[in-house]
Amino acid sequence: MLLENKTAVIYGGGGSIGGAMADAFAAEGARVFLAGRTPAKLEAVAERIRAAGGQAETAVVDATDAAAVNDHVDAVVEKTGSVDVSVNVITGEGNFQPLADIPVDAFAGAVARALTTQLITTRAAARHMVKQESGVLLFFGGSDPANAMAGMGNVQVGFDAVEALRRQWAVELAPHGVRTVTLLTGGIIDTFPDVPEMEGPRQGIINGSPLKRAATMSDVGAVAAFVASEKGRSITSTQVNISVGACYGG
């Protein structure tokens, strides 16, 4: 198995993307620690993993609280001996509106929250990874300046900001053997609400792919597990494109 005897921490582990990564990590042998703010959602993912024969534990953690995050990671390391993979799929509240229509506080607050939580969780894991001289920090979203489009509001701006943060972590942590990789997505339509208003965006993502299909949650998990494993050890300081060709950023 790709991640046998590895420890993975997932912030936002009760959500669809975090859950997909957790499923894949556990299926490849990782011991998965799911962190988030909604116990029922975390436990639902954990129960699914355990039913499939995997190992999963949950913890209610506010990922904007540095002390809480540090305490959680320290507890994970004390229990397992290491933190090998850390991924945070928490984003700020998305405003899919024209920029002129978004209140300044709402725009800036969402981007600030995304950056804050990413900084806190990455820093907490990096403390241990630097000591280990190993580890993988995964990010989700990515930056694709070639494909800017109207109506994205603060969403792509937030992804771009987090990607800039990831690049800075990459140069600072690479000398310590820590890899940093972003999964570049053009949108995971499995996660879209099943309402008529989303049919246009859903079809637009499919049409934007040369293969005329979109990445699934299963695809996200499979690529994340590969990148986090030793099979992906040559991949770092970059984005891995999981958009089925819809995004061109590298």
Amount of helix:
40-55%
How big is the Rg?
17 Å
Number of domains: 1
What is the residue-mean pLDDT, rounded to a whole number?
Answer: 90
CATH class category name: Alpha Beta
* Strand order in space, largest sheet: 3-2-1-4-5-6-7
Q: What CATH architecture would you give?
A: 3-Layer(aba) Sandwich
Gap from first CA to last CA:
28 Å
At the fourth level of CATH, the homologous superfamily is: NAD(P)-binding Rossmann-like Domain
Q: How would you spell out the order of helices and strands?
A: EHEHEHEHEHEHHE
GO molecular function, one term: oxidoreductase activity
Family: Belongs to the short-chain dehydrogenases/reductases (SDR) family.
Protein name: NAD(P)-dependent dehydrogenase, short-chain alcohol dehydrogenase family
InterPro entries: NAD(P)-bd_dom_sf (IPR036291), SDR_fam (IPR002347)
